[in-house]
Design brief:
Layout: H1 11-28, H2 66-87, H3 92-115, H4 118-121, H5 127-144, H6 153-173, H7 189-207, H8 212-229, H9 237-243, H10 259-276, H11 289-312, H12 315-332, H13 339-360, H14 375-398, H15 406-412, H16 415-432, H17 435-442, H18 446-469
Helix pairs in contact: 1-2, 1-14, 1-15, 1-16, 1-18, 2-7, 2-10, 2-14, 3-5, 3-7, 5-6, 5-16, 7-10, 8-10, 10-13, 10-14, 11-12, 11-14, 12-13, 13-14, 15-18, 16-18
């Protein structure tokens, strides 16, 4: 192989984030009711046909991977984003403000994205509701879009001010089916968790930068607090701080347990950062394609084995097969030939650790579950996220097939537009032009319903890709 130029961005991380956000959108478009798909197409604890939550039902499905994959990619991005600001001379105070500002914007996003959803505004949206939902989506752009540096400060402040004024007026005059107006208790729980992770995950990395042991120590403390309160809480001062929340609509200590995914992400992010900083990456001639293809296939084999085995409850066989795959991967990566393979070796060592840790925790709390999340769930999904990242990186950075994953990369660089747009852009537009009725008439069987969801998700993905390629990004 020829020398490969040093990357200036970890596109595989963007692809992982893009996979997570698009899979999240697709899972929300799957058919329910009489046209339901097989149980493995839904959250494992909310199976068809009733879709009632069953906290005693163990196992995970592909749908249960999307949120921890997004959290992991968020954690891995902290070292890349924050270290760049540190190297540019940003003071600690300004860096702290940047983190808090990001948290405030995400908190606003969690409130406003729920407030403008058409089915939040009305159980049976009319043309007026669809247009109002579209208007709410457009309000995000002047508030969140990264404006060009060459624009004057006055112009930027004016645009931001108009956006915030429009958001305030929307919240002041909006009315909901129960007759109420805007409320902080009406928010998107997924974004609320991301808000907490953006703030506390950033602070954890900043406080333990280049200090792995203190970071793992913090993870241990979080585990101790978590174990003291779940599955059954125990009265005492640990339980008191677990329950304490000065602003319950945006913060609960309960949310910090998701750092069990974010902190492994930051460890991977440190390794990726060192790799990105490399002056050059040489793939030597003796680095054979079959070996890299084997590693690529192995990484995605972990996903299939663990999803199928844990859902079917083939616990002993799944565990031993996973250990065997870990051994095969360790052997394949035992003698790295270049900086990229050394990155894979280090990342995979951590993947082995998180997977093994998660599998040993599997019997605890009645088996692995996404809801309520178990310790096994956090660590198994963190390990799987590393495996998928390695697979994507082989495709992008080694085989130079970035264009194959370009749609994922574009959406991974602009995930919040995708998250808001699926309900407030694609759905209203399809309803206004009558295409929604055509898709509904098409989706007369479960798998046709699936393809309807794929079409809607692809429309959103292409829209986000269009905006990304024109450098229109939201700051969150």
């Amino acid at each position: 192989m020829n020398p490969i130029a040093s990357p200036n961005r970890a596109f595989a991380l963007d692809a992982l984030r893009g996979l997570a956000i698009l899979a999240m959108l697709l899972s929300g478009q799957l058919p329910f009711g009489e046209h339901a798909l097989p149980a493995w197409m839904y959250h494992a604890q909310e199976p068809p046909p009733g879709f009632q939550w069953n906290g005693l039902l163990p196992g995970i499905s592909w749908v249960d991977l999307v949120f921890p994959f997004f959290l992991f990619s968020m954690g891995a991005a902290f070292p890349l984003a924050l270290s760049k600001r540190m190297e540019n001379g940003t003071s600690s105070v300004k860096l702290l403000w940047f983190v808090l500002e990001r948290g405030l914007l995400l908190g606003f996003f969690a409130l406003f994205v729920m407030a403008i959803r058409p089915y939040t505004l009305s159980s049976q949206p009319t043309t007026g509701i669809w247009l109002l939902a579209l208007f709410g989506f457009l309000i995000f752009f002047p508030i969140l879009t990264r404006l060009p540096d060459k624009w004057s400060r006055t112009l930027k402040l004016s645009i931001r001010g108009l956006g915030w004024l429009a958001a305030i007026l929307f919240c002041a005059f909006a009315r909901y089916p129960d007759g109420s107006g805007f409320s902080v208790d009406r928010s998107d729980i997924i974004i609320i968790v991301l808000t907490n992770m953006a703030v506390f995950g950033s602070l954890v990395w900043m406080l333990t930068r280049e200090q792995l042991l203190p970071r793992l120590g913090l993870l241990g403390i979080i585990l101790a607090i978590r174990l003291s309160n779940m599955p059954e809480p125990t009265d005492g001062w640990v339980h008191d701080i677990w329950m304490f929340s000065p602003l319950s609509w945006i913060y609960k200590l309960y949310y910090l347990q998701y750092l069990c995914v974010v902190i492994p992400g930051t460890i991977a992010g440190d390794l990726i950062l060192n790799w990105v900083r490399s002056t050059s990456i040489f793939a030597e001639e003796k680095s054979s394609s079959w070996r890299l293809i084997s590693i690529f296939a192995l990484m995605f084999s972990f996903v299939l084995v663990l999803l199928i085995g844990l859902k079917a409850r083939w616990l002993v066989g799944t565990t031993f097969l996973t250990f065997a795959l870990c051994f095969v991967g360790w052997k394949l990566l035992a003698n790295p030939l270049n900086k990229t393979e050394r990155l894979y070796q280090k990342l995979f060592s951590w993947a082995i650790y998180w997977l093994v840790l998660g599998l040993f925790f599997e019997p605890y709390e009645g088996g692995i579950k996404k809801d309520h999340p178990t310790l096994s769930y956090y660590f198994v999904t963190a390990g799987l996220a590393i495996c998928v990242f390695i697979g994507f990186s082989i495709l992008i950075d080694v085989f130079q097939k970035k264009r194959w994953l370009q749609l994922l990369i574009d959406n991974g660089q602009n995930p919040m537009i995708a998250y808001a747009g699926i309900n407030n852009f694609i759905t209203p537009v399809l309803a206004l032009i009558g295409a929604d009725n055509l898709l509904t008439h098409f989706a007369t069987t479960p798998w046709r319903g699936f393809w309807k969801g794929v079409i809607i998700t692809l429309l959103m993905a292409v829209t986000v890709s269009f905006l990304t390629r024109r450098k229109i990004f939201w700051r969150t």
